[in-house]
Amino acid sequence: MNYYHQISRVFFRGGIAISASLVFAQTAPSALGAAAMPYKIVNTVQVMGTGAIDYVYADNDSRRLYVPRGNQILVFDLETLKSVGTIANAKARGVAVDPKSHHGFSSSSPVVMWDSKTLETIKTIDVQGGPDGILFEPLTERVYVLSHRAPNATVIDAKDGSVAGTIDLGGAPEQSASDGQGHLYVALEDKDQIAVVDVKTLKVTAHYDLGGKGHAPAGLGLDAKNHILFAFCGDSATAVILSADDGKILATLPIGKGTDGGGFNPMTMEAFSSQRDGTLTIIKETGPTSFEVEQTVQTKQGAKTCTLDTKNNQIVLITTERAPAGATPPAPEAGTGQPGGARRGGGPAMLDILVVGQ
User: Fold this and answer.
1) CATH number assigned to the domain covering 64-300
2) Distance between CA 39 and CA 282 in Å, rounded?
3) pLDDT in tens, the chain (358 residues)
4) CA-to-CA dists, residue 144 to 97, 204, 248, 259, 349, angstroms
5) Which of 116, 215, 262, 310 is the most buried (most CB within 10 A)?
6) Other C-beta atoms lying within 10 Å of the C-beta of residue 54
7) Angle at which helices 3-13 and 17-27 cross, to 10°
8) H or E element that contains 55
């Protein structure tokens, strides 16, 4: 029974059948539309280059899409997917942008800080560990650079780039999510846990154990309004859904194999997880404790990270595939001597940007 059925039944029992129909019609069109219009790939772009990729990031305020590749960060228009520039000398895993200060940051060592309007580098920031995941936390206007090695989190003031502190999370962090109200949730891949951080004190306040229901959580979605976490586990191909208040496990659902990213769209009440096996799992939150796999979208092999375009309610994924025979890689990036800013060995390959929508 979903939210809409509950509303309909209350009014019907009250003997107001016409009002029940009106409430259902006014409340449920998005749900009906979702059922009638399944998700599919609605746009794709291919870009020749070399070098490894990891996380993709949508700057929804500035309408830009960031894809770290090799020794540079590629920047695209989020609407058209046309290239708008690059940020050089950034061996990054991911990107975070503060929409207030218009400062961007890379998960790299050192961290590169730039002006998100001009893409000009402002400065570099020395950090320890091996930067991987990254997140902008809006309440304190700080950036969290996550690392599997100590320190697990380096916290940077987004306004001036100063280091505010470091945190021992008690495990190897992957994706994180903020509720905007003072809590940061971090998936600990090696511990099968979700760490809870007080962003004001920079202290870990709890560890939510997945209780053997899922292994190696890498992606994380958060319904901040209803305090629900979606931990997407790569090794067990499982989504573990739990309360963000106390860690109580609410449900488990199957997903594809090899997830490395996910999220939650409050406009559609859907969580999503991208997988290496070329699938995107869409989970519908039909009630406070009711969830179901709504759809499994076929994407492309290797498309294991994703980001949400909040304006268009679309999910953007990235992967690479072998370039056609005889393809010519880009010219070397200035100062690197590497074709296209390559981070490590390997020939040219196509970067695929996939947009999934209805």
Assistant:
1) 2.130.10.10
2) 9
3) 444 344 333 333 333 333 333 333 333 334 444 445 899 999 999 999 999 999 999 999 999 999 999 999 999 999 999 999 999 999 999 999 999 999 999 999 999 999 999 999 999 999 999 999 999 999 999 999 999 999 999 999 999 999 999 999 999 999 999 999 999 999 999 999 999 999 999 999 999 999 999 999 999 999 999 999 999 999 999 999 999 999 999 999 999 999 999 999 999 999 999 999 999 999 999 998 999 999 999 999 999 999 999 999 999 999 999 988 766 665 544 433 333 333 333 568 999 999 999 9
4) 11, 14, 26, 21, 31
5) 262
6) 18
7) 160
8) none
- What residue ranges do the domains of the chain occupy? 1-36, 64-300
User: Strand order of the sheet with strand 64-69?
Assistant: 57-59, 64-69, 72-77, 83-88
State residue 321 phi and psi, 5-degree precision. Answer: -145, 160
Asked whether 47 and 329 are in contact (CB, 8 A), the reply is: no
User: Cα 267–21–7 angle (5° rounding)?
Assistant: 55
- Contacts by 335-339, CB closer than 8 A, 24 or more apart: 335/88, 335/89, 336/71, 336/89, 338/50, 338/51, 338/70, 338/71, 339/50
144 within 8 A of 155, measured Cβ to Cβ: yes
Distance between CA atoms of residues 259 and 256, nearest Å: 7
Sign of the dihedral defined by the CA atoms of residues 330, 334, 338, 342, in that order: negative
CA distance 313 to 191: 32
DSSP for residue 339: B
